[in-house]
Write a structure and sequence with these properties.
The protein contains six helices and 26 strands. By secondary structure, it is mainly β. Among the domains are: about 270-300 and about 320-390, no CATH class; about 390-515, Immunoglobulin-like (Sandwich). The strands form six sheets. Strands 2, 5, 11, 13, 14, 17 and 18 form a seven-stranded mixed sheet that branches. Strands 1, 4, 7, 8, 9 and 10 form a six-stranded mixed sheet that branches. A four-stranded antiparallel sheet has the order 19-20-24-23, with no helix packed on it. The longest helix is centred in the first third of the chain and has 7 residues, at about 5-10.
Length: about 525
Amino acid sequence: MRNHKSLRQALPIVLPISMLVLTVTMSNSAAIAQNVFGQTGQTGDRGRDGRSGRDGQNLRIVIDGKPAAYDLSGAVGEDAEDGTAGRSASSCEQPYRPEYSLIGASGGRGGDGGNGGTGGKGGDATIFYTDIAALKQLELRNVGGRGGRNGRGASGGKGCSCQESAWRVNYCTWETERRPFNDPKAEWKYHSKESRLCDRSRDDSDFNHNSSRTNEYRRDDWLYRRSYRGVSSSNSYTCQSGRDGENSNNGRNGETGNYGKVTLVPRLDIPAEIPSDRKTITAALSKKVGLIKNIWVDRSGLGSLLRISSDVPDRYTYLKDTAKLFYRFDWAAAMTPSALGIELVEVGANVVIRNEKAELEYDLPGTLEYQVVPEKDLQVVKITGGFSPDRVSSFQLQQISGIGGESQILLSDRGNIRELLKDAQIEVQCLSKQSATGVVSSDYAKRRSITFAIPSKAKPSDGAIVNENIYTLPIGRYCSPWLKSDYNAAYQISIKQTTKSGAKYNQSLDSTFVVGKN
């Protein structure tokens, strides 16, 4: 037998039901897990998704004026399967009046329904004809297939139910006295007391009939008398039925497939295109080049052109025209291509469609100067000058010198093309780790920016000097507060060159340095 103190220590902690629902699922607490009776029901299986429908056949159709019908519709998407019902909780026999509260195991959630299959796309049709009125003889169906039906969600399983929703556990007390066995006249004296669960056969809260008699027994030289003292304490416990599993969701209906594309060609073939051409300048000069480009446009009202029983999209693509454009490159510069160093430069053209009209777009380096002169059914591109593209963006940082206001940057232009340009600009960003007052930061901070304008022949701006291909930039007069001896400084140099044809070329140069040590 246990005494009352040890019995209370063995009792589990009774938690509110709302907390039990959360903590029961934690597998690392055996004491909490025992408050749940029964086995949780398994979740139902999700229904299988329906397969997508087959796309319609793509077809080339030639109209000869006779009635014709073509069905290029997409196939219907497959229906999805329903989910299966969640399993009910099992082993739901409620323990008889334990010394803790109970909660039944939950039923399993129903399985979701599957998603219906997407309908197949309608087939693409390319229709050739020479008489537009003959299109009325054509019945065409290229509608997308209907999507498959969704699968239905299933019901959840039942949770374990409580056979008894509340009960009370009583603890009874016995007192033991003793006297010497060989002295019948000796007084009985208190020896011990113990409490434990009362007899479960009776529910009386204040008396335990089966234990009410007094018992005597001998042990060694003592005679003991054990007497029942009644119910000393009681605890109330409850049972909460397990939750039923949730009903699951229906799947999505499959989407209807799209219409196929319809293309109308008012002839019996589609002309082959030559949309572009490109050659070295020496190979291209004086050669007449023809480019071919089909002009496709989008139109609406397709249903009104075909037999009324057709099922087609409203929009269609139409071959409006086939453009044939001609051009020629002619040389009109004083110096030869070889003398200008551009004999291996490639030139060409391609056809672009703007507002349903074809135009020639020329592909020449921005360093070439040219003009386009229209002639009869021909555009002549006269190249009047220029230089090799290799000569732009060819600056190098030569030297950083001086301290404070005497600091200068020297750049060399290996291309030496100042007079061949329309203009140029050189922007210099001054950066330093130290402020003007000497406060040091961990990274470079931008302090000032200055832009030097370099026209092709006029004097440069802001004190810059150009001597042949050497550019001297007096950066010190603008950034001197941050160009003190031993300062950590940096320059970010951005060079923008604009050619006479309007093309722009950009180049960047960066340098970090310690002032006075370069």
